[in-house]
């Protein structure tokens, strides 16, 4: 069984409500950024829009309870074309000039929290796609493969399921589209103030990960952020040349910093962001931060989220969702913004086992309970 703390959203309605509230904030921010993804839009403006929306929506909830912290759990990242993830530029830097154009495949990622309970989401779209001119060919394949992978995983978030069953299912599903999950990416169980719980799910583990990372059993009371990155290439990414701007405090490391600038930066990180992800853009003085963050990262007081890129003429789709494992089945709390009318894949799923899984209801049926209830009423 999961621990009492992990089951708390099942037994404690207020915690479940905080998860749901965080998800509502996350959904509104995602909706705003998606609407802003048009030809000519600047990436930095969209990142600021997402962060501002989270902050403004967070101010509206639990406003009479000052002790409850809420806001950004992971900064808005808008990653276009070959740059796959973690693009959240700083003003005045080269990446701040990144502009979306018609035909770009764009990946959006952001997260919010209420009292440390996290809702994390990612979405992929093609700029300018319409019902008459959808994302098609290999672009359509990879987007649909990623979306269907999410649908399959959601149905496998069941009490007693094994993590590597999810791994094998997604690999089998993506093969139907001649695609593959990005190598080494990890989905985590989440807890209050903890974005990276011990339980993990990997969709395409490396050889070493297969040997070193134990299989886990999913349980009611688990909360997961499912991270799905699917590619048309060989599953490998390489670092992008741009500056890393997204970080998170490493709670497992202690070190006495030497530089005053570094000490000031780390103090601000602890006080302002706690255990949540942040962009250097959100620091009080981003220029001074550039110096201080270097020593912090060198001694692993913070973890950086570098920008990664794929090969030329290859495509990657990114979706994330947050789900709570309830007794009645998994509850997806972040919204699915996928629009099937804007995607036309060349391939389709022909595997009978995968198709049957996708037809499975997400929630347990209440028919048996209702039948027993009617039988009992008849006997009275």
UniProtKB/TrEMBL annotation:
<dbReference type="InterPro" id="IPR036005">
    <property type="entry name" value="Creatinase/aminopeptidase-like"/>
</dbReference>
<dbReference type="InterPro" id="IPR036388">
    <property type="entry name" value="WH-like_DNA-bd_sf"/>
</dbReference>
<protein>
    <submittedName>
        <fullName>Creatinase/aminopeptidase</fullName>
    </submittedName>
</protein>
<feature type="domain" description="Peptidase M24">
    <location>
        <begin position="18"/>
        <end position="225"/>
    </location>
</feature>
<keyword id="KW-0645">Protease</keyword>
<dbReference type="GO" id="GO:0005634">
    <property type="term" value="C:nucleus"/>
</dbReference>
<keyword id="KW-0378">Hydrolase</keyword>
<dbReference type="Pfam" id="PF00557">
    <property type="entry name" value="Peptidase_M24"/>
</dbReference>
<dbReference type="GO" id="GO:0004177">
    <property type="term" value="F:aminopeptidase activity"/>
</dbReference>
<feature type="compositionally biased region" description="Basic residues">
    <location>
        <begin position="361"/>
        <end position="374"/>
    </location>
</feature>
<feature type="region of interest" description="Disordered">
    <location>
        <begin position="357"/>
        <end position="380"/>
    </location>
</feature>
<dbReference type="InterPro" id="IPR036390">
    <property type="entry name" value="WH_DNA-bd_sf"/>
</dbReference>
<keyword id="KW-0031">Aminopeptidase</keyword>
<dbReference type="InterPro" id="IPR000994">
    <property type="entry name" value="Pept_M24"/>
</dbReference>
<comment type="similarity">
    <text>Belongs to the peptidase M24 family.</text>
</comment>
<dbReference type="InterPro" id="IPR047113">
    <property type="entry name" value="PA2G4/ARX1"/>
</dbReference>
